[in-house]
Amino acid sequence: MGINLAEEIQQRVTDYHIDNEHDPSEENMEALLEDAVESITDSSDAITDMRNFDVYASVLKHAKDVPSPLITKLLDSLVSGFQAEFDATVKDIKDDDQHGGQKHKEPLEHYAFLFYWFVAAAEDVKADEATPATPVKPRKGRGGKAAKGASRTASKKDSDKWSWADQIPQTLGLICRILRQLKMDRVWSVSSEREAFLTCITNPVYDIAQKESHMKQADIKQNVLRVICLAVKYQGHGVVAQTKIFSNLQFQEHLADPMADCLSILEKEFDHPQLADNILLDLSRHTFSEKETKGPRIFSRFIIRFSETLPAHTLKQISLILEQLDSEAYPIRLAVVEIIHNLVVHLDSLKRHQEIDENQATKQINGFFDLLLERALDVSTYVRAKVLNVLARLCTIRDNKYYKKRLKITAMAVASLEDKAAGVRKNAIALLIALLKTNPYNAHDGLLEEDEWKEDLEKTRVRMEEMGLGDAVGRRNNPLQEQQADEEARKEQRQRKQDDGAMDVDNATDVEDEEAEEAAEEEDEEDEEDKDEQTQDEEAQEAGADDMEVDEDGDPQPRKPSKKTKKKKDKNRRNALKPRQSILDIEQINRRMAESKLNELEVTKVVAEYRYRHEGLSFIEMLEGSSETMVKLLASVNKTEVLEAIEFYLIASNFKLKLAKVGIKHMLHLIWQKDSGTLTSEDGQEIKGIRSKLLECYHWLYFEGEDTEAPPKLIAKNLIELTFDADLAHLTSLEEMLRIMMAEKKVNYGVIETLWKIYSVSKPIPKVQRRGAIVVISMLALADHTILHDHVDDLLKVGFGKLGKLDLTLARYTCVALQRLNGSAKKVKGSLEDKTLRFDMNHYVFKTLRKFILLPCKSKEWFGVAEQIINTVYALGEHPDVFCNAVIKELTHMAFTPREPDGNVDADTQMTDPDATQDEEQKDLDDTEDEHDAMDEDHPGDTSRSSEATPREKGKDLGDAFVLSQLLFVVGHVAIKQLVFLELAEREMKRQRDLDSAAQGAQASKEVEELDQVVGNAEDDVGDQMAHIREHGLLYGDRSLLKLFGPMLIHICSKPKKFKNPTLQAAATLSLSKFLCVSGQFCGDHHLLLFKILELSKSPSIRSNIAIALGDVAVSFSTIIDENSHELYRGLSDADLVVKKNTLMVLTHLILNGMIKVKGQLGEMAKCLVDENERIKGLAELFFKELSTKENAIYNNLPDVISHLSTGDHSVEESNFHNIMTHIFRYIEKDKQTESIVDKLCQRFHLTQDPRQWRDIAFCLSLLPYKSERSVKKLIEGLPHYRDKLHEPDVYDKFNQILVKARQNKGAGKPDTELNEFAAILEQNKEQGEQDNALEQRVQGKKAAAKKRASKRSSTSSAGTAPTRTSTRNRRRQEEIIEEEDDDGLS
Questions:
Q1: What is the pLDDT of residues 217-244, one digit of tens each?
Q2: How is 1107-1136 classified by DSSP, letter by letter?
């Protein structure tokens, strides 16, 4: 009895009805199977015996309950029987027996059906292999007998273990033989039966393919693919395979690559490309939704793999693939972009091997480049980033015919640096790096110095003018402006397309026909222009114009759609990316050659050279134009973006681009970044930390030559140049970098010796070099202070000798170096260990410093030197107060000693070197030391003598204001340094006490502990003693020298009209600020004077110093300053940028560290978010970002900020209010905070009648996230507060925005009933409010009219006309009418 395969395979194995079913729990399945196997072994067609078939079917149906050895035995029997029957069928067909194949039809169907079932059952066995099989009853009589047809593979395996995966390759091998050798039409004459058999043996293969674990095994994967290929090639399985593959690609992600490989094998080995064509056709017609994720991702991998394995076929069918270029699903667009890359590489390879027509390949590649440039404007971030990545990989194509494309790509990459997505910006930088590395402009040994290229271009232009070709040279355009023009053209095209959509059908059709004709004409013109340029190019190459070939810029499209709408679409794309107009007029050149009979070879040369120079210069200008944006990217929070920017500057420096110097200088500040582990990039490579990358970059730039480490002289020169024109921030970062390099032994001592030679050399050298040498030495000494120990004499001789007096900046840097003699070992918090070394005050170092600080000087640079000298004394001296007492007394004597009548100082007292004017170091005033003594300088515009500012009064002694300024400056700085010294002394006393305690035994420690409990802790006594000295001893002690100068500072600072000298006022104010930091008593008595000076002073430097000083005073005595904390914010509204910046930074420090309490002034900080200066704006953004990390800090102050900025004298413009609130509200994320703010803001509607405040409150409400239902409920509950404000259009619009946001955040499946009712209520109240508002306006108008009429009557009655009773009644009636209307309006 036969079986109907078409029907049987539709049933599930467990549901299949078996006539003579055997239950494993009741019968001995092993014995039954043994009998059936013997029958099959004797004759393969015995499978048609239903007794044998039912045994096999029963075992498969109950596979979960059958021991695994039986499954193995069944498979071996099934495979051997199927193979024997197949061999017999092939033999009979080969013997030309017309009906020989048909007699095998029924056995083959039975075997195919059992194979179909076995695959399904085997998967179940594998899944439940740990489940013990049901025990079978022992059978008497004939035992189990091994099947003779069992395969050799099964005999070698452990019968107790079952592994279907091990059996799959041999099973699929049999299927491959059947599909390749069996002529099915000789067995099944009916196509439906033949298809049923084919389905029965191929469907299990697709089931196997759906198991990812199977497809990871190479032998199984290879056999699965071959089965599909053989079925398609020899058995007409193409349509079914097409459906199966397309269906699997929608759900089975692991089949993307195997199915592409299958199509590749089918075409390469079986010469059958039709299946690939059909699948690509289905793919082009398939619509991918934007919401789909899995399907588009699978198809994306599939077609990418397909293009890699079959690029020629992909190129042939590219029109089908490009149909998905505008797909809603971005993974598909990503795939198309990657395919374009593969095709361009393929075409370039064919072109290089001369396997394709060069012009055809060039046109196709140009077309692909245009598509990539168009797709660079994709709405998806991922697609834009992919385009940039692809273009970077295509930069290896250096054919001269793509030079203009490179310029377009460069312009696009520069524009992408400002993209909002970090991934796009990162890939844009990578593209610029690739363009730089592969740039074809090698005229100046590969260097891209803009000035040299401009000079060469001008020379070439002059040559053309001499040849009479000047008229052919067009105007140079800025490439970035051309890029912007392209974007504007795209916008116009889109707008035109939208306008066209509004036209009627007939007009639209006419327009499309006209556009198609125009497109054809444009293509002809472009082809003609390309042909002319190509001719010029070939002639230039024949003439030997090295690296200056004429470029070609074709603009074909790879696909040729037939529909008119497609033609219109292609035309829009071509117009959007139309090549910029050639810089040379070819027709004009040809005309001039014909008229003047110029040498054609020379003309070709100069034309090619001009184009080459022009395009090279355009490339340089585009890169230089990216400088400002690239510097901003160094501050990005995205790590990979910063690393790419560092790499770009490193490469740019190799090509001598100007922007490299700027970028390398700015990226030095990245040394403060903390490297927190390593990251992994998209390609699996480890990403270095920013600091590590920076150190590597600087080491390569300044410490290495082309191949090996640079010589010490070159390294020293490089390091010194880093200090040129460096500000304080740059020097601080450079110091940290050199410290790290020195600590890591990356600076050899040959470089250090070279630096010492430069510093101490006696011959004339530029000042900046000598300064730079000592600056670098002092930075390196932070890591190893021993490099200074052998050169102390050099420091004193150079820094404070003749050269130091000529250059006070050199003396100041020398003091810094002296301070590093003790190193810079950071103190461990809580540790009392002190490793510093101090010298006796009779040491010659202090004698030299004292002599130098007392030299007469009129230069403002003296203050910087004096500050560092005092710092040096306090860093190295055992008793620095002794040194400072002597200096203060000497300066006091100098300041108050009566001067000569002419006011001049005796030249002998200046202690200058008489031979200084004859020294050879003063030859060059610009590059070497100045020939006049720096000690004699007066600051321009500074009246250093009070007698010069005011007429000298007869009989009065007037001192030198500048010397008095010096005295006050030293007094103030000594006060603050003495305060620090007291803290060190306190720590030393505690250290000594701890050492004494450690020397005593445990018993002594116990006694001390008990004693402390009675009389107090000795440590507290030390602290109290030092606090008393600090509070009362320094400024109020009977023996304190500083006590004398407190009243003097108060007197000078409080009388600026009397003491007009600006230097004196600045020094006095600075010293007063330092005095305030010393004593709480002094601060409490005089801190208001500092606030008054901040308010009234006209000097920005004084105000800036006070802003900084107030921060220090607030740290020292927060309770005193907290009473007047509002005064600290005054500097935020200062007109001077430096004052504003310093105030903002000080307040940031104080607020974030909790040193002052914010009392509603946070609104002034918020104003800085919209400041015109980017630096101020950035600092304010950083402040609020850090403030948001404090618990509820922004939330608690938000109501005050809104009130401060919305109403009163401090309010800002509405647009600025919106910008500020948008930034601040991004930090409100908690649901409870949102609910509370909604409640508070709704109540504010009820408290104000100002429409501006209504709008501001509504705007703030619209900024909240509304992620919870409770926040929306709070808004609805607050309806009574704002229902009468909804007539204001902006208020109503903001509530509509809130509704949209609430609907978006609503959970899936929840009804919109409540939100819809709320929307209806809003609309109703809006209409009611508009009516009430209109009525109120009418009432007010009638009241005004009534008052006007009443005033007229009163004037008439006053003229002599007595009022009548009728007029009185009328007037009363009018008043009643007005009152009734007024009541109606309020109801």
A1: 899 999 999 999 999 988 888 899 999 9
A2: HHHHHHHHHH-HHHHHTTGGGGGGGGG-SS
